[in-house]
Amino acid sequence: MVVPIDLQAPKGRLILPQVQAIRDALDNDAVAVVVKEREYAALLKRLNKPPDLVVCDSQVVMKVMADTPLDVKCTTFSILMAKFKGDLIELARGAAMIDQLTPDDRILISESCSHHAAEDDIAV
After folding, report:
1. Closest alpha carbon to 61 in 44, 42, 40
2. Using CA atoms, how far apart are residues 44 and 33, in angstroms rounded to an integer?
3. Which residues make Cβ contacts (< 8 Å) with residue 53, sequence separation at least 6?
4. Is the pTM of this model over 0.85?
């Protein structure tokens, strides 16, 4: 799990999706390794074998993907939350419709956060 420590991170705590992912790994007898994004590439080199899954924050997904071997599955905490809180199959079905949109189609894209936007927030 690649966890950036930024302005949104509560001092001394992880955010809820990160905590839930760690707890889910433990509940399923998996090993959870948590690292900051700037230490991720070095950690990969120290592992005897690549991880089965990498979970990262959306704001660092491009860097994490660039550092991750092609055969390792990756996702984000946001995707895990979408699966936990919503209907991920229906969301994916909706995303697949993008190719069928015409210039006259109108779509609504919205996001909801439980915190106020901060200086380096991905949505700002």
Report:
1. 40
2. 11
3. 72, 73, 74, 75
4. no
Q: Do residues 53 and 21 make contact, with C-beta atoms less than 8 angstroms apart?
A: no
What is the tens place of the pLDDT at every residue in 6-51? 766 677 888 888 999 999 999 999 999 999 999 999 999 999 999 9
Which pair of tokens denotes residue 34?
């948590």
Contact, 53 vs 73, CB < 8 A?
yes
pLDDT digits (tens, 9 = 90+) for 47-101: 999 999 999 998 899 999 999 999 999 999 989 988 888 888 898 898 899 999 9
The phi, psi pair for 121, rounded to 5°, reads -65, 140
First to last CA, the chain: 24
Q: For residues 75 and 55, is the Cβ–Cβ distance under 8 A? A: yes
Identify whether the C-beta of residue 56 lies closer than 8 Å to the C-beta of residue 37. Answer: yes
Distance (Å, rounded) from C-alpha 91 to C-alpha 29? 29
Name the DSSP letter for residue 73.
E
